[in-house]
Specification:
The complex is a heterodimer.
Chain A: H1 2-36, H2 55-61, H3 64-96, H4 102-110, H5 117-127, H6 135-141, H7 154-182, H8 186-194, H9 199-210, H10 212-228, H11 231-236, H12 248-258, H13 262-292
Helix pairs in contact in A: 2-13, 3-7, 3-10, 4-7, 7-10, 10-13, 12-13
Chain B: H1 2-33, H2 39-44, H3 57-65, H4 68-99, H5 103-114, H6 120-133, H7 140-148, H8 151-162, H9 168-175, H10 180-191, H11 193-209, H12 212-217, H13 226-236, H14 241-276
Helix pairs in contact in B: 3-14, 4-7, 4-8, 4-11, 9-10, 11-14, 13-14
The chains are: A mainly alpha, B mainly alpha.
């Protein structure tokens, strides 16, 4: 036993550093959140902890802005991955063709995913502004369209976040598909041409099925990113007008760090965590099934 | 005849794509040109090239208002040190998890996997409590510690890659009496170069661009990262939007240079990650 342990020791030493930082900074806080959500924790002392059941969860569901944030995130995470995929696949097909400027094009479409979303948010806030430096309204003015208050009307504000996010993410995700496209054997297409397949049939029966594994990765990333979305709405709309673009992440931070309602914030975190676990499990199951087919 | 027709079609397609590229790039064009114009001209004609009244005054003002060098140094320190820690810890752990299979390492694999489903927001409040107890809140060191826990991404990238690396060399080295530490760093790690580059690129971009962590954990401006300068500027330059644009350009410059140098690897990295994923 002793000899075996001595042999194991170097291996344990190899995993230990990663294990420690990960445990202390991710797993223990996670377990604490899961536990504290059911108590009357005040944020500081652990000595007067009392179990108070589902009290915090009740207060989450009776809070209108919390319910709003949940709905906003649900809505966004449902639509955003689908729409981005609908744009990313054709974009990857276009970038995969034999154009002379394709490298330049790839660089341009990819570039919006390089800057921090905070910078993109503030930049677009200027572009969408109703004042005279607002580029978009100035452009619309050329056609006699009155300035639109893009960030001050709930529906338009959500739409603006959506479009800016799409603009910044679509090139990155097209790259994921691009890689997979290049690995499809040319013979498949040659055989299809011999059989007289149309362009649409080639896409439907060769390209699209072959993109399945890239799609699993891309959609999962899109889903997780839309669920966790924080920086972009923070800079672009700050959750407003009202709470119309407030997402789960922002409301957790607001309730926890600004209002210091720790019980509510931890309860919301638990709901968020469960939400993410369920959604990513379901998504992976569905996608893997498609990959096998 | 057919080839000629297709040629024309692809020609039109290329022009169309270039047109979309131009539209895609307009926000950055708008960002850059307006930093070289006097504020009034920028407001009146935001799309014009800054030829008539070209000026660098706005940059001078932006640099005077923000703590560029201090924030740049903090961003650089935080990013470089945490990425090195992530690479070292991540590659070592992944090596043992893939090569030394037993009950414990199999458990560890799933243990590290859970982290992917834990959004940072879920752990923030206890984490904040922990960091202030350790006196690591509002410090550059604290940020490094926070980002080091992102090592599970590296573990998975390495774990996927190691599956395709032949074991013969390692076994030979171990028989020759090399210890695990030496064998790993001299023989295995050099073979992991391409995936290491991918991990470095992703983590550099995530950590450099991260806003949530410094926003919550850093309070004094001497510990600010560059992204925090943009956030601060949004309040400060509310009436001076072109100076704000300059701040954004200054903060954007380092990561853009990084992107331009690493572009080749970035696309390759996304693809390798995706295909393995």
């Amino acid at each position: 036993m002793k000899v075996k342990l001595k042999k194991e020791l170097p291996y344990i030493g190899f995993v230990l550093p990663a294990f420690l930082v990960y445990t202390v900074l991710t797993m223990i806080p996670l377990v604490q959140t899961l536990g504290l959500a059911f108590t009357n924790w005040d944020g500081y002392s652990m000595s007067n902890l009392k179990f108070n059941g589902l009290e915090n969860f009740k207060s989450v569901f009776s809070d209108r802005s919390m319910k709003n944030a949940l709905l906003n995130t649900c809505f966004y995470s449902l639509i955003f991955p689908v729409v981005t995929t609908i744009f990313a696949i054709p974009l990857s097909l276009a970038l995969n063709s034999r154009m002379r400027t394709k490298n330049l094009q790839r660089a341009v479409f990819f570039f919006p995913s390089v800057p921090s979303a905070i910078i993109l948010g503030y930049l677009w806030a200027y572009i969408l502004a109703p004042t005279s430096n607002g580029l978009l309204n100035k452009f619309l003015g050329l056609f006699g369209i009155d300035p639109v208050l893009w960030l001050a009307i709930p529906g338009w504000a959500m739409f603006s976040i959506f479009i800016v996010n799409l603009w910044s993410a679509v090139g990155w995700h097209a790259c994921i598909y691009l890689a997979q496209l290049q690995s499809i054997p040319v013979e498949y297409y040659e055989a299809a041409i011999v059989d007289g397949a149309s362009a649409w049939q080639k896409f439907r029966y060769i390209t699209f099925p072959m993109l399945a594994s890239a799609m699993t990765v891309s959609v999962l990333l899109l889903l997780l990113n839309s669920l966790k979305l924080f920086d972009l709405p923070f800079a672009l709309t700050d959750g407003g007008p009202g709470t119309s673009t407030t997402m789960i992440s922002q409301i957790i931070i607001k309730t926890g760090f600004v209002e210091k309602s720790y019980g509510k914030a931890t309860a919301m975190s638990v709901i968020f965590f469960i939400f993410i676990v369920i959604i990513s499990m379901v998504q992976l199951k569905l996608m893997k099934k498609r990959e096998v087919e | 005849m057919i080839t000629k027709k297709r040629g024309l079609k692809s020609y039109i397609g290329e022009i169309l794509m270039l047109g979309i590229c131009v539209i895609f790039f307009i926000p950055f064009y708008y960002l850059i040109v307006n930093t070289f114009k006097p504020a009034r001209e920028a407001t009146v004609s935001p799309m014009s090239l800054p030829i008539k009244n070209f000026t660098l005054d706005l940059y001078k003002e932006a640099l005077r208002m923000i703590n560029f060098w201090s924030s740049f140094r903090n961003s650089l320190l935080i990013t470089i040190i945490s990425v090195i820690i992530i690479i070292v810890f991540g590659s070592m752990a992944a090596y043992v998890i893939t090569r030394h299979k037993n009950k414990l390492t199999r458990f560890l694999f799933f243990y590290f996997l859970i982290g992917f489903m834990v959004p940072a927001q879920t752990t923030l409040i206890p984490l904040f409590n922990l960091m202030s107890r350790l006196k690591l809140q509002n410090s550059v060191l604290g940020m490094v510690v926070l980002y080091s826990s992102w090592c599970n991404f590296a573990i998975f990238m390495y774990q996927g890659f190691l599956g395709g690396v032949p074991k013969d060399l390692e076994e030979a080295a171990l028989i020759d009496g090399a210890n695990l530490w030496k064998m790993f760093w001299y023989i295995v790690f050099p073979l992991l170069k391409s995936v290491t580059i991918t991990i470095i690129i992703f983590d550099v971009m995530w950590i450099w661009n991260d806003f949530m962590m410094p926003y919550l954990f850093i309070s004094s401006s001497s510990n600010f990262t560059l992204i925090m300068e943009v956030y601060k500027g949004a309040g400060q330059f509310a009436n001076n939007w072109t100076v704000m644009l300059c701040t954004m350009v200054i903060v954007l410059a380092p990561i853009t240079i990084f992107y331009l140098f690493m572009q080749k690897y970035i696309i390759a990295g996304i693809t390798s990650g995706a295909v393995k994923g």
